[in-house]
Amino acid sequence: MAFMLAAVTATVLICSADGIRLVKTIIIPHDATDASGLTETIPGGVPHNRVGGIGSGIDRVGGDEYILLPDRGPIDGGSPYRIRYQVYSIPMGVGTEPSLVKTVMLGDSSGRGFTGDASSLNTSDPFSSPRYDPEGIRVLASGNVVIAEEYGPRIDEFDSTGRLVRRFEIPAAFLPENFGPSAEDEMPPSSNRGRQVNRGFEGLALTPSGRLAAILQGPLIQDGALGERNSRIGVNVRVLVIDPAGGESRQLVYTLASARHGVSEILAVDETRFLVIERDGRKGSEARFKRVVLADFSGATDVSGIESLPTSGLPPGVEAAVTTDFIDLLDPAFGLTGSGFPEKVEGLCFGPDLPDGSRSLLVATDNDFKDEPTFLWVFSIPRDHAVFSGRAGAEVGTNSRE
Fold this sequence. Notes:
402 residues, disordered C terminus, mainly beta, 2% helix, disordered N terminus, single chain, 5-stranded antiparallel beta sheet, Tachylectin-2, Chain A, 24 strands, 35% strand
C-alpha cells in the first residue's frame, strides 16, 4: 500500500545554453507525515513522524522508486530524532504525484535504533554510540544500502530492514583526535586532527564497478582548514575511495572554488568522473553559488600518504580533480532564483531515461525540518551531452569557478 503525500508538481520546459532542461519540479510540503508510526512530538515542536530533511541524500531503487534520506533531525543535533530513510514512488510523467511507499528505521547490528542526538555519545567507544547523522546514500545491486555518515565519519552498509551489516574501515586521518558531545570538544584546540564539526562525510557515490567514494563537506582540520577563531579558510577537500571487495582505499582531492563553500553530494558518472554539488550557505535572494560541478579525477593524485595538505594550492607533483561547472542552479534560465530559493541543495541521483531519449537527473533540497517545502528538481540531459562522452571539462585546468 502506498501512503499518499500532499505534494505539488509542476512541469516546465526551461533550457540552458547547452541543452540541459528543467522539466519538472516536485514540491513536498513541510508537514507531510511518514509511516514510522511514531506519535510523540520531539524538541522544536516537530512531530516525530514528520517527513523532513529528506533531500540530504537520494538514490534510485528501480522503476519509479527512490530512497530519500533525512539527516539527524531538527535543532542541529539537539533532538532525539530516530534515524530512518523514506522510500517514495516518484513517476516522471506529466501530472503524476509522488507517494510514500514505506519508512525504514535504521539501527545497529543488535537492532538498537540510531538517534540524531549529538550528546548520545560513548566517548570511550564512539563507534558503539547510537548517535548518527546520515548524509549520503546509495543502493547496492543486492538491495542493501550504503550510507555516508557525518558524526564519525562513517561508511556503513544496511540490509533492507535497516539493520547494520557492515562497517567500512575509515582511515585515522578522518577521525577527530578527540570525540565529544559538543562542537568545542571536537574542534581546535581540543581536537587538531580529523573532520571538522558538521563537515564530515556529506556525500556518497557508487561507481559502475562497485567502488564507493565518500566526500567530506570541507577540508580536514590538518589540511589547513581553519584560521583564527576556527574560521574556515581551507579549500582542499578529501574524497575517500574504497573498494568494498578488498577494502583497499585511496584519497583524492577536490578543490573548492571558495573556502566559504561546502560540498553536499557526489554522484558517479563513470569510474573517474563525478558530479559534485558545491554550494554556499546562503538562501533566497542572497544565494550566490549553488552548482553541480563535473569533477574529473582521472589524473588526481592519491594523497593517502600525505599527512597534511596546505590551506590552498597543493604540494609539487600533487594533482586535484579537474573541475568545470555542469549546472548552475542560479542560472536565470531555470527560473529558480528568488526569495524562496533554499539554502541546502544536497541530493543528487540519475533517474530513468525520458521519452525523448535524454537522461534525467534529480536534484533534492534539505529543509532541515523547518516550515519550508522539500524541492525535487528533475533535469533533462541530452544523451549526446559531453558529460556522457568524456569530453566535458577536457580543456578546463583550473578551479576558478566563482
